Amino acid sequence: MKVGGQAVIEGVLMMGKKVVVAVRQANGDIAVKELGGVSQNNKWMKIPFIRGFFSLFYSLSFGLKAIDLSAELSSGEEMKKSDSIISILIAIVLALGLFVVAPAYITKWIGIRNNEFLFSLIDGFIRLGIFLIYVWIISLSKDIKRVFQYHGAEHKTVHNYESGEELSVENARKFSTIHPRCGTNFLMIFLLVAILIHSLFGLFGTLNMVQRILVRLIALPIVAGISYELLRLFDKYPSLRVLAAPGMLLQRLTTAHPDDSQLEVAIVSLKHALGMEDETELVNKDDGAYTEVDKPVEFLG
Question: Do 105 and 216 form a contact (C-beta atoms < 8 A)?
Answer without folding.
Answer: no
